[in-house]
Amino acid sequence: MLVFTRKKGESLIIGNEIEVSVLSISGGNVKVGISAPRQISVHRLEVFEAIQRENQAASSSQFPPSDVLKKFIR
Amino acid sequence: MAEAKALTVRTPKFGEIEIPEDKIVFFSEGIPGFSGIRRFAILEFEELAPFRYLQSLDDPPITLLIINPFLLRLGYEVQVEPGEFEDFRANDQSDISVYAVATIPENVANATVNLMAPILINEKTRRGKQVILLDSRFSVQHALLTPPGQDGARAT
């Protein structure tokens, strides 16, 4: 992993278009601002990981049993 | 005459399936949790309705059980940031299908549905994306079934 030390107000650029700025630092929290092209999704890593795990769990799902199916037929 | 092209895929779950080329859905960013797979198809089986399967065509063991989340009547809404899904923008909304991924573990009572990250498919362009909603009301593990006791009419 590439490691940089930045002060409040300083930024990094990734590629030509993604800018990461350190907006404020207080206590143990760093506020980070990201400007990126709209088609680049930016999310908290733990949210993304939760979705990865959920997709993997879903892929080993069993077939929906018939009593489950019945619940959705109206 | 142009031949109707189809892709034949041997799947562990459904055996050999044939997908017409115009039914292939392309996920240009893939789906989180499965790296490098881009092509999927929606499989529909009468006996599994209203569920469907999102079947990977590049890695056949990967299948996701999906359901139209609006059927769950949870006051669900999908607010997508403009530009989050290119094919979602400036298009007729009726071209967009919305699916939620369901997980049915061995204990069926613990079945969940992922409302935080719905799968959107533009039926015209055949492009799809799993988007992440910022609305904190919708979790990745929303109970699919009403817990017993909350639905008196439920037969077991």
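The beta strands of chain B are 6-11, 15-20, 25-26, 39-43, 52-56, 63-67, 96-103, 112-122, 127-130, 142-143.
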